[in-house]
Amino acid sequence: MNIIIADDYEKMSRIAADIIAEKVRNQPKCVLGLATGSTPIGTYENLVADCKAGKVDFSDVTTFNLDEYVGLQPENDQSYRYFMNTNLFDHVNIDKARTHVPDGSNPDAAAVCEPYDEAIASAGGIELQLLGLGHNGHIGFNEPADEFPVGTHIVDLTETTIQANSRLFDNADQVPRQAYTMGIGTIMGAREVLVVVSGEDKAETVALAFSGPVRPQVPASVLQLHPNCTIVLDKAAASAL
Ligand code: F6R
């Protein structure tokens, strides 16, 4: 694991965007795994600025997002498809047909999950997977559990995650109770992983995940076993290491 400590959120975001932009410049047809949430917003802002400045070209890039709420239509402004469109895809020269988010509007998990992993495999696998880190150590929606889930699957969200995500909804009752998520196997299959974490409220989780034992009760700890994983923290998130 390569841990980079940036002064603040802005610098963390710039460093992460540089790693992604460099990957796209070197491999214009690469497959990126993408995340939603508050943390990568600054990374996407930098990528949008880079694209507008002609420094990076997304026209041949394919993307697969980590996860999506079950029960939300893509045009729902709380859906992760909507988030990706408004924070990145609408502002860069990517072909939307090459962007993939699990279909949360389809309640049939069997029709969504296995085909999602198959689509990733037939695109050649993920070259670089961007991740955020949940307060409970989750990555994607892989919540603390007794084992690491392998492939894309449906999950019941934990109360902690529902409460954490309720800040983006009118109230906690509106947060969907289930989500589709890539599994830990899907994530670990990426040839490179890039994690962004910001804020003192994540400091204890960072220490547990990246300097504690590898265990499914702290899902992100599995990244210690990934052969090419970079973690970009701001100083506050690194404060308990
Ligand atoms: C988002 C995702 C989640 C978030 C995590 C951190 O697609 O899969 O694992 O990365 O919940 O979220 P933020 O960045 O909002 O703290």
Key phrases:
globular, single chain, binds fructose -6-phosphate, 7 helices, 10 strands, Rossmann fold, seven-stranded parallel beta sheet, 241 residues, alpha/beta
Reconstruct the topology from this structure.
Layout: E1 2-6, H1 9-26, E2 31-34, H2 41-52, E3 62-65, E4 67-69, H3 80-87, E5 99-100, H4 109-122, E6 128-131, E7 153-156, H5 159-165, E8 178-181, H6 184-188, E9 192-197, H7 203-211, E10 229-234
Parallel strand pairs: 1-10, 2-3, 2-6, 3-5, 6-9, 9-10
Antiparallel strand pairs: 4-8, 7-8
Helix pairs in contact: 1-2
Describe it.
Helix 2 links the parallel strand 2 and strand 3 (62-65). The protein has helices at residues 9-26, 41-52, 80-87, 109-122, 159-165, 184-188, 203-211, and strands spanning 2-6, 31-34, 62-65, 67-69, 99-100, 128-131, 153-156, 178-181, 192-197, 229-234. The chain is globular, with a radius of gyration of 16 Å. The strands form 2 sheets. It has a 7-stranded parallel sheet with strand order 1-10-9-6-2-3-5, covered by helices on one side. A 3-stranded antiparallel sheet has the order 4-8-7, covered by helices on one side. The protein is an alpha/beta fold and 241 residues long. Helices cover 30% and strands 17% of the residues. Helix 1 (9-26) packs across helix 2 (41-52). The model has no long low-confidence stretch (mean pLDDT 96). The two termini are 14 Å apart. The longest helix has 18 residues, at 9-26. It has one domain (2-129, 150-191): Rossmann fold, CATH 3.40.50.1360. Bound molecules: fructose -6-phosphate. Fructose -6-phosphate is lined by residues 35-39, 66-67, 132-134, 138-141.
